[in-house]
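In this supplementary section we document a worked example of the pipeline. Step one takes a protein sequence of length 304 as its only input; no multiple sequence alignment statistics are reported here. Step two produces a three-dimensional model, which step three serialises into C-alpha cells for compact storage. The input and output of this example are shown verbatim.
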Amino acid sequence: MAHIKREGNPIADGLASLGSTITFRTNEAIRSFEIGRLEHPTFETMAHVHHIQGGNTPWYDDIKRYIESGEFPTEMPKNEQKAIQRMSARYFILVGVLYRRGFSTEYSRCLDEDAAKEVIEESHRGDCGGHVGYQILTKEIIRAGYYWPTMQKYCHQFVKTCKECQLHAPVIHAPASHLHYVTSPWPFSMWAFDVVGPISPVASNGHKYFLAATDYFTKWVEVVILRTVEGRHVVSFIHKNLLCRFGVPHDIVSDNRTHFKNEKMRQLCSRYHITHHFSAPYYPQGNGQTEATKKILIRILERT
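The serialised model returned by step three reads:
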C-alpha cells in the first residue's frame, strides 16, 4: 500500500469536492432531522400523562375502551392512537377486568393507582411481606399476577418511606474490599447451618428457635421453626429439606454445639458420605455464610 499525494490523485479529489458544487432549486429540498434518545418507553409516559389529565381515570382507560368498542377519545392525536393499537394486542378483558399477557406469568391483572397502593402495602408490610427491597418487591408483585406501568418506581418510593425499613436498615461499618472466590464448586454441594434464638416474644404455639441452612453457591436458605433444638430435629431437617429436595451435599458446616455434634449426625454423615466441618462458637467468622443469613433473619423479625 502506497500513499498518493493530493496533487497526484485528482479523480478522487474531484469526487470528494463534487458534493459542494450541487445546488438546489429551492430551500424546501433540504430537510433536517432531529434525533433524540428517550429515557423511558413511550407508552409509560403516555399512561402517566393520561392519568394526570383524567384525574381518577386509570392509566388503562384508553386501552380498555379500544378493546371494548374500537374507539379512541376525540382529542387523541394519531400517533397516540397507533400506540394504543399496538399495545392493545397484549391485553384482553375477562369478566369486565383488563389483563395483560406476560412472559413470566400467564396473565397479570391491571391495577389502577388505589389498587396498586393496596397491593404494595400488603406485599411489603403484610404477613408474608418481610420488608424486602424495592427490586424484590416488584418481582413478587409480578409473580402474584399484577401489573401497572410504573411498578418499579412506585415500589422504590414506597420502600424509601417505610418507617420500619429506615429504623432497622443495616449500617455498614466495614470498608470496601475485594471479592472472594466461591468456596462451593457447584450448587447445593455445601451448606452452612446455624440456630437463631431463643427469640422474644415466643410464638403462640411455643416456637422460639430458627434452624437455618444456607447454600454457599446459590445463597438459597432453608428455614424451620422449632420449640427446642436437638440432634433428631437437625437430622430430620436435613432429610426433609435438603436430601429429598436438593440431593446429597458434599460438605456441611456448623458450630460444635450438641445439636450438631452428636451420634445421630455422625451416623447421617457416614451413611451418605458427607464431610462435616466445625467452626468454633467463639469465632463466628469461621462460618461467615450462616452469620450473614442470621443477620437477615433477625432484621426481618425486627421489622415485622
